[in-house]
Write a structure and sequence with these properties.
The protein has about 200 residues and is mainly alpha-helical. It is built from 6 helices and 7 strands; from the N terminus they run H-H-E-E-E-E-H-H-H-H-E-E-E. The protein has a 3-stranded antiparallel β-sheet, with helices on one face. A two-stranded antiparallel sheet has the order 4-7. A hairpin with a 3-residue loop joins strand 5 and strand 6. The longest helix is centred in the N-terminal third of the chain and has 35 residues.
């Protein structure tokens, strides 16, 4: 009862409004500073910096020993390493690479992927994207990317990082910014968006 009366007074509402406005303005200015700093970092990077494409290389048939592998990390059960192998988490070696001799390991797996490059499993999306024959498709994407989109992908150094980012952040797979166009195939590396499924 006392709280209700207090909230009806204009000066209390004015104080609440004023504090909200101050909070909003400081948050906006901080965000603007971060945006300017990020933009400066991106502009400082060489604009003609080429992506390091993965050379056709089959670990199982090679005498070259790779000391460390990067992998997709986030999968609960599956992981993809930078050589395109998908394996179960238990078959990951200490160097970060999938054990190529494990029965669960396969290279360039497109098991859950559709013809348009959209997959239902993130790790399969990355693995399929790493196929050497996907390089022209990814180059076309980078060349046609919108200005804002290009800023997002200029931070990637090589084919593996591009596939991680493309599969994870594809705006083509969403509609109205809050629903997937196709919830079964939401991880996309391809050029065309997934087919819109009726609700």
């Amino acid at each position: 009862m006392v709280l209700r009366r207090l909230l009806r007074k204009r000066w209390v509402l004015g104080v609440v409004f004023g504090l909200s406005l101050i909070y909003f303005l400081t948050s906006t200015l901080k965000q603007e500073e971060r945006t300017i700093r990020d933009r400066t970092l991106l502009e400082a990077r060489d604009a003609d910096h080429p992506i390091q494409w993965k050379i056709k290389f089959i670990l199982g048939n090679s005498s070259r020993q790779i000391s460390q592998c990067r992998n997709s990390i986030q999968g609960k059960n599956l992981l993809t390493d930078e050589l395109g192998y998908v394996c179960e988490r238990k078959d990951l070696l200490v160097n970060g690479c999938c054990n190529v001799n494990a029965p669960s390991s396969s290279q360039y797996v497109c098991k859950s992927c559709l013809a348009n490059g959209c997959c239902s499993v993130y790790e399969y999306c990355v693995s399929c994207c790493l196929q050497p024959d996907k390089q022209p498709l990814l180059e076309r994407f980078l060349n046609r990317a919108a200005e804002g989109f290009q800023n997002l992908f200029t931070a990637v150094e090589d084919h593996f990082e591009l596939c991680l980012a493309k599969c994870r952040t594809s705006s083509q797979s969403v509609q109205h910014e809050n629903t997937y166009r196709n919830p079964q195939a939401k991880y996309c590396y391809g050029e065309s968006p997934p087919e819109l499924l009726p609700i």
